[in-house]
Amino acid sequence: MDDSPAYRRVMLKLSGEALMGSESFGIDEKVVARIADQLAEVHAMGVELAVVVGGGNIIRGLAASHRGIDRVTGDYMGMLATVINALALQDAMEKRNVATRVQTAIDIREVAEPFIRRRAIRHLEKGRTVIFAAGTGNPFFTTDSAAALRAAEIRADILLKGTQVEGIYTCDPRTDPEARLLTEVTYQEVLERDLRVMDAAAIALCRDNGIPISVFDLGGERNLRRVVCGQRVGSIVRG
User: What pTM was computed for the model?
Assistant: First the structure.
């Protein structure tokens, strides 16, 4: 099997939950280190790498609204949580000698650059990993939508969604033993069957811009490298 990159520029969507490992809250430094090892390995292959990180390990806006916090306020709190995660991942990456920039959709110039599309692309061209934080900068939009939006803006070849399951299933494999793995589906099938890979806005953005979505288990042995090399891992969503 060819071990050379199949993609020039990739966008990886990381959930906040992926950073907390087996903990119930917060950041597990060992998990972040393992993720950074995988990212550094892909970066060393010459792949231009961008990351969108979520904040669900700290707070989710929708969940906060169910506890009495105003939804818009809760969403902004969630955006700030993604910045915390992005800085943690940046620190781990730079300890592995990978030049990394964090760009945020809300202005926090003391800790990160504001998102500027041309600057982000230039960082990638210079071999720097770019971590996008604070979602789209707007309430009511998920970090899945942010990942699809940024992927389109930087002209990524593929959107990778690293999860804690093997790929896309007909239903939740953690609760239903009848769940079947779907190795390849279309954007329309995802929307019509409500497969909950990503939210509908993210799927539609990828469909409209011709960006395939790879969904795979980030915890699998060298799975990120295998996906980047074009090997069949998990599930793929395309036209």
Answer: 0.94
